[in-house]
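Let's sit down with a protein and look at its sequence and fold side by side. Go ahead whenever you are ready, and we will take it from there.
>
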Amino acid sequence: MIPVRCPHCHVGLKVDEKKLPAGIRLFKCPSCKEAIPISLLTEEDLCVFDSDFSDTVLIRQPNAGIGKITLLTDGDTNIHSFPLHEGMNVIGRKSAASQATIHIDTGDKSMSREHIRIEVKKDGKQGYKHYLSDNNSKNRTLYNSNYLGEGETIVLNDKDEIVIGHTVLQFSL
C-alpha cells in the first residue's frame, strides 16, 4: 500500500499498487471526485525521473515476479506483450473455437489454437515459477532451439525463447 494525497482536496488515501491495471494514467479521488494523474514507475524510471510531474502521483510498480510473453515480429504477427497470471495460461492462435486464455492474432496457420501452456505457481520464496509445456500441438514447440518432448515440462528463465508454429516468443520477468 502506498500513501497518496489528493492534489485537489488533500485527503489522504492508501493505494494498493498491485491492484492498479496496466496502462492506468489517472483515477478519481473518492472524496472530491477530481482526477488524480498517476505514473507507474519501473526501476529504470526511478533513475531518469523528470520533475515535470508536479501534480502527478508517482507510484512504483510492484515487481510481482510474474513474467510476460513478448511476440517477436515475423511478418505475420505484430510485436505485442502479454502479461501472464497466476495459474494456467494457455497460449495459441486467435480463433472463435479457441479455448486459449492468451489469443495471438496471427496469420501463422502452423500455430495451434491452444499450442502451449505456461503454469505460474508461487514458490516458497515469495516469488513465482513458470512451467512451460506443449499442449499436444500438431507442430510441436521449440524451447531455446530444442523440441519439447511429449509430456515434458520445463521451468522458464528470463529471456528464454519459445517458438510455436513459425512465431517466436520471448519470456521475460
Q: What stands out?
A: Residues 43-53 have pLDDT under 50 and may be disordered. The chain has two domains: 2-60, 68-172.
